[in-house]
């Protein structure tokens, strides 16, 4: 599927988009899939755990609370996500290992990059409905992403 979020938005003007200015970090510049959610307050333990499981083409949306204190995704976790067939990862926070992330054939959107790794205290919640800058996102929704942004739909767009 050739993906253009502006075209999707034009054809489905009722759909919400995630109102953030994302940077693209993975080698795959457009991606889509069913949503899995995680709330991860400056701790990527749950992110690492879920991306080690079969992704089946899903997209993980990580609510990092827009924190720029630590990275919630690095090269090793992203490579594991690719190997486990995740379509992409959206971090409402930061990543690290940018040069290596750019070579991994997975979609990655994040707010920025920082060098510091996160704590490993197993904090966070998987599968919880998120409210991201006023937009409701829940497990099982669909997300469509490219360099223009990320559109959320409750149904798959064909």
Summarize the structure.
This protein is an alpha/beta fold.
List keywords for this structure.
globular, 34% strand, ten-stranded mixed sheet, 158 residues, 4 helices, Glucose Oxidase, domain 1, alpha/beta, single chain
Structure description:
This protein has 158 residues and is an alpha/beta fold. The chain has one domain: Ribonuclease E inhibitor RraA/RraA-like (Glucose Oxidase, domain 1). 17% of the residues lie in helices and 34% in strands. The protein is built from 4 helices and 12 strands; from the N terminus they run H-E-E-E-H-E-E-H-E-H-E-E-E-E-E-E. The strands form 2 sheets. Strands 1, 2, 3, 4, 5, 6, 7, 8, 11 and 12 form a 10-stranded mixed beta sheet that branches. The radius of gyration is 14 Å and the shape is globular. The mean pLDDT is 97.
